[in-house]
Structure formats: structure tokens, C-alpha cells
Amino acid sequence: MRPRRLAAAATAVGLVAAGLTATTGPAAAHSGGYSALIQRASYGVPHITAQDFAGLGYGVGYVQAEDNICIIAESMVTARAQRSRWFGTTGDAAANVTSDLFQQKVIDDRVVERLLTGPRDGVHSPSNEVRDQIRGFAAGYNAYLRHTGAAHLTDPACAGKPWVRPITELDLWRAHWTNMARAGSAALADGIVAAAPPAGTAPARPGELTGQLPAPEAAAVVAAPDGAPAGVGSNAYGLGRDATASGAGIVLANPHFPWDGPDRFYRMHLKVPGRYDVEGAALVGDPLIEIGHNGRVAWSHTVSTARRFAFHQLTLAPGDPTSYVYDGKPRKMTARTVTVQTPGGPVSRTLYDTHFGPVVVVPGAFDWTTDTAYAISDPNAANNRALDGWLAMGRAKSVADLRTVLDRRQFLPWVNVIAADSDGKALYADHSVVPRVTDNLAAACIPAAWRDLYAGSGQAILDGSRSACELGRDPDAAVPGILGPAHLPTLVRSDYVTNSNDSYWLANPAQPLEGFPRIIGNERTERSLRTRLGVHQVRQRLAGTDGLPGTRFTPANLWSVTLGNRAYGGELVRDDLVKSCTAHPVATASDGTRVDLTAACAALRGWDLRVDLDSRGAHLFTEFARAGGMRFADPFDPAAPLTTPGRLAVDDPAVRTALADAVQLLDGIPLDARLGDIQTEPRGTERIPIHGGWPEAGVFNMTINLLEPGVGYPKVVHGTSFLMAVELGRNGPSGRQILTYSQSANPNSPWYADQTRLYSGKGADTIKFTERQLKADPNLVTYRVGERRD
Fold it and tell me: Which SUPFAM superfamilies does its entry note (predicted)?
């Protein structure tokens, strides 16, 4: 049977260019086929309506392919373990071999296929609705590719490339699995691939990689202060009735994600009448809204501090480093030789598993010796609940409903939830998937040598020789091996909750959350400057001391607060820093060079303490903070966590050294340069000025970029990405939203730079949830996509 496209001959891009509308009728379902109505609003944002989830998935796959086919195609190459084949193995591509070996083992072990078996209840295995959504997504993507042809794609990143191929449902499920395991197994992929028994204990097979491979990423994961995936973060507010002018709930979503690559967000509004109606954003390649709102509830996610895996210290059997002792008896590891294709020929590696999970090495910390090895338990490696979880979140009618979803499904891989509802209740919850390391288990099963590591970072290393030290099961947990809801921090308030990637402790300082297992996060410890500013901004708004009218939040003033671009670190220490460098105008840099600080003092004195486009000297303070200059004279006081520490250690010579280092680093760039002239984002030949700054300077609106000597910051790496301020009012949701880097990564798309320019000016698109809101958009373009089988 041959699929046939039902869409109008022109795509959305063509319709925009022609100023035409293809159709205005409702989406119709076709037996055995797919159909979706696409309504492209301003900035190319699709509002997709279908009569079933297969049709909805088809529409999502089609429009995401229209806008970002190269991103999705490359993600599929990764999931297929073919990065080495298509992108090489030398230079920056050296990590492709590790990626492929890791992914090929997932394929060989049929990990995803096994997760798709079982009752289709959305907890034990994905529901039929979610499976239909995935099936439809693959079909919609393939339809666009078939209609356009790889040779005629307009994105130069993948036009005519042989790796742009049709995709399967299994490809999508494998890519989804990798996202679930991102902060666990996937974060330790190099350590898993590197794991090999001590040299000389086992013969190498022909074509096998030999020796102990370096594992720098694994070492970074273990050394991290928490379990957050690298390169991501977020701010979020849930504002209740006591904090809003209307009494309805308001949510700020402010995820900080990469501006390029597979982790870009994509705005959309998805609707199956009577069954699902949600507006917001998802990562490109994902078929359901992950941050957004329906008519009654809005939510966002911030990256949680909880650890996503537990190490198990294995006592090896004498004379056999591939067997470990368990309850006094030896157990053989499972060895699997994995082979991938590279331009230089096949590469093989033998990978090892235990009943806990894969064996991992981290040189210098977790080495595989003749006596000891280490394996990890990664509960997210069996997390097949997430898409159903987000589907259920989108159907929640209140904060209470949302709590029920979180409790029952426990699906969030590595994020918190911050939410509010139309009744004015606000919710914070870290209901993410966390290994079941209770305080009792930690006390009984973490060897003495590893207790300080656990106390300081939450990283658990359990005794792997005893069954009593297995993760076990909480009676209220959705699945074995994870902490149940009773062990997880949750807070419902009528005023506000907030999170900026510190732990749960001060979600609302008036009601600290305490007494939870250390693996989730720390308590009564110093908060980041960004966390502190986030709380100060709410408190000052409610007190009416932030310079804005009134004493409550609206979506408009929430937008102004979020993009106020305060540098809280500067507010704390700038004046004392200027006094110091004025009194001592010459300092010694780290390399021993004597540096004149006169111009630096003048630039900092004239700085407005913000990271706006017109701010002058902001970059100097940022580099000072990044060089370690934020050193305080007063200690942290858990009784005053929002104001301590707060006094610059002016007598510490490292402070003036950091300023001297910053001056050296900025050689060739005026120290009083306007931020908008040196911090930009390229779009073709255009350089769009970008505001925001680094968290080390205490900036809430985070913009992370790399300094190019003598030039400035010519490219954003990650930071504020999808930004939403939504109010759940009586007449439906309203408010503002924007995708900072724009809807499409294709330089030939009309939606490649438009929202980026809008963001540069602190502008916004509007919430368009209701039919009235959508039809009021003067740029609305409508077309239908689908296929039926003859």
C-alpha cells in the first residue's frame, strides 16, 4: 500500500511567501492513515489539530522536519550508532567512536525493544496513545522528506547528505532512551566503553581496542557538585494567588539550554479535541509538549540536583577480575563484544555488565584493578514512562491533579517541576527518578572511604558484595530501585515557589524543605547568586520595592523582572571592588605580570550593574567573577541564606589578581565597551546583539558564551532559550512567550532569526491558546498534511 500526501502542494514556507491559505477546515481522520491541520502563526509557530494521536504525531513530525530536519536526522544517526561512519573519528569527531560503541550496545542488547513490552498502561510500557504519537511522528517526518527529497532540502547543514534517511519508530524510541539516560548511563558512556579488566588478564580479540581508554567525561560527572547534566540549567517561578494581581496562577518558564544542536526547544500547540490541548515547547525530535500549559495548569522544569545513578563497589573473585563476589559467592560478569563501522574499518570493544548495570571506570577514582571494580545502577535506563507522563501532565486540571500524575508515574528523568493553576495554587516538586539511597541504606552500605564523597556531593558508592545493599523498593514507588513520593520534596503554596538549579531546600524560604536523603540534594548550604537573586526579585515585587508599579505579578511585569538583567554579584561587591582598585591601581596577574587597573576601575565605576545591551563594563565584571574574584569576607549563615555571604574580601590578594587577569584576558576589547556591541549571535551576515550574562556574576537571565580574544563574545553557547510567562485567567491562558534562537536552525527559513531579533529588544510573542487568540494573528497560515493508504 502506498502512502499519499494530502497536504496542499505548497509547504508553509511557500504559503507564507505567496500570502495564501491552503485550507481552513477541521482536521479529518482517515482510517489507516494520518491527517493533521497545521495553523502557522507569527514566527512560524505551528498549532496542530488532529482527531487522534497518530494524526497529531504526523503533524508534529512533518512541521519539525520542515523547520529542523537536519537536527532530527543527525539525532537519528546517533541513535543508530553511525556517527563514526558519517562524521569521522578524528579531531573534534574523536568522541564519535565512543558514542557509537555505547549506542550499538543498546541496539545489540535490544534495550528499547524490551522496554516496549508489557502492559500498555503508561507505567509498565508506553500507552497506545504515545505509541501512535511516535508512529505518526515517524510517518510525518518521512512524508516531508519523501515530498522534498534530501537533494532539495534548503538547509545546507544536511542538503544532499547520504545520512538524511527515512526514520523508524524504533529510531525515535532509541533517541528517546538516550535522552532519559542523559544524566546517568549516557553521561558515563566514555567510562563504560573504557572499562576493561587489568592488562594481561584476558586476551584481546582481533580488531579489538586494547588498553584503558581515557574517561574524562566520566570523571567530570563524578566530580560535579550535583547530578545535573552538563550544559543545561533553568529558572522558574510558580506564582500563587497571593502573589498575582488577578489571583490566578502565573508560571515563569526560563530553561537554559544550548542554542545549537539536538537540545534546541521547538514551540508548538498540540490539540486532539476533547483529549489533549497544550501549548508550549518540546525539544526538537520530541512529539509532546514538555514545558507549557493547558487551560487550567502551567508548568516548567528546572534541572534537579539529585544524582541519577549509584555506584556499586565490586569485590572481585580471586584470580578472576571479570567475576565479583555477591553474598559470598562469585558471579560472572556478562561480556559483550560490540563492533561499529568507521572510515578506517571496523572497531570492536568488549563491554562488561553486572546484575547492577554496566561496569564503569573513572581513572584515578574508580579504577578496575585485580581486586576491585565498579558498576552503576541507572534507574533511568529503564524509564519508559516519560512520554506518557508528559501526556498526563498536559491533561491535569489542577495542581492536585499534577501531584497525582507525578506520584503515580515518577517519570521525570532529571528535572524538577514548578507549576501553578487557575485557582492560584503553586507547586514545587522534585519528583524525578532518583536511585533509592535512603539515609539508612547510606549509613549501612557506603564504605567508610566514600562517606565524605556522599556527604559532600550526594554521589553514592554502595557495597556491591551484599544483597542487603541493593537499592530495593519503596512501597509507594512506581517501579523498584527509586525513591518513592514519600521520600521526595514537594511544596504547595498560595504565594510562590522558585528554583534556579540549587536543591529543593529554599523553594520558598518561608517553608524550607528539610530531612530528605542526601542523594537528592543538599540542605542548609550556601545558595548560588542566581538562586538568591531569583528569590529577591519575587520578594521585592511583592513589597513594591523593585521600581515597577504595584505589588503583585502580572505576565507583563514578570517579563520585565526576568529580563531586568540585574547582576546581583555586582550589586554586592562592585563598590568595594572599585574602592580597592582605586586605592591599589596596580595588581599582579596570575602569570606574574603587573597590570594597571586604572581603566578597569573607571569602567566598573561607570557600570550600571546590569547586563543590558547598553551596559558598559559588564563584560569586565563577568570575567572578574569567572576568574574567581567573588571571594567573600563573611561566612555563609544558614539562618540568613539569602544575604550571606555578601561582603567582598577586599584584603584577599586573589580578588585583585582576578581583576588583573580579567584585564589581561580582555586585551584589545575596550573595558567600557557597550555589551551589545561585543556580545552577539550570528544569523547569516547579521550579528544580533544579545543581553544577559554568566551566573558567576549573579545574573538571572543567563547567557553563556566564549570569549574570542580581541573581539568579544560572537556566539551564544547556551542560556535563556524558551521563555514563557503565562497567566491562567478566567478567560483562558494569556501572557508572553519567545524562543530566543528562533524556530528553525535552517538559515534559509523565514523563521531563522525573527524571534532572536525580538528577544534582542526584550520583545515577546503572545500566548495563543484559544481560537480567538489564534485567529487574531494577522500572519496565520493554514494547511493540511496527511496520507491515507489505498
Answer: N-terminal nucleophile aminohydrolases (Ntn hydrolases) (SSF56235)
